[in-house]
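ESCALATION

Customer reports they have been waiting on this structure for their group meeting. Please prioritize. Original submission:
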Amino acid sequence: MSIFSIFEALPLPATTIDIVDIGARFIGDERYAPIRDHGAARIVGFEPDDEQLEILKEKYPDQIFLPYFVADGGERDFYICHYGGCSSLYEPDPEIIDNFTGISTSQGSNFEVVETVKVATKRLDDITEISGCDYLKIDVQGAELDVLKGAKERLKECLVVELEVEFVPIYKNQPLFAEIDLFLRQAGFYLHRLMDVSGRAYRPFLASGNISKPVSQLLWADAVFIRRFTDFGDLAPEQHLKMAALTHELYGSVDLSARALAHYDARANTPLQDLYLKEINDKDVELSFHNVKDWSD
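Update from on-call: job pushed to the front of the queue and completed.
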């Protein structure tokens, strides 16, 4: 998402961003890859799938990856699906899923439950291997709110939370976006933006021969929450730098990054915001509002 490297463009003081990745299975580079590749990330990831865990350890030997199920700390049923990425602490709901083209609970389909096992879960607040949490990424197929409820202390230090949310209950009794939004607002966060918004066509409709192409119904997205911008003045200077780096590198949110740098400059007597704005102007960065209508037209 980065339009240029903030680490290369600005004389930022050396800092380490603590990243906690819950549901870290490797399906390609994560959004935080530029921070990791720059050497500015300390990652603790969680992936209970043994095969995926070994892939992560082999690819990133300098980071920590653990096999824990992270949720509410209790014993839970874990529904193993035909496609591992659909497995969840919540049971897939055929009454919802089977309405849509391209997803199904039938035999051999991604959401088919092939086995149910009992697993012990851990609360994020109880995991001692985590030394800090500036950026929290959660992708656990419906159990995101369970993770958040077990992370109330970690959330106090967190700057950015990115998590998959659903708008209809793909899994039985799962909390939806509205409940997650309420919880995070009460914890001191505001919704910043939605990424990778997606859905599917209603059966039997098929759009352009593409079974994965959405038409009208929103099903899920990655929701990005940030520490309340009205509370930026309460953050430590190093947190302002981390906020600027995260929102620039992951989301290209240059206005928010500039705001964070302004707070840092006010405390450290530095010109980082001016240098940043000059980079944006020199590179003629195109500013857009996430494909939403620009009412200034």
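Sent to customer with the following note: The first strand starts at residue 17 and ends at 22.
Escalation resolved.
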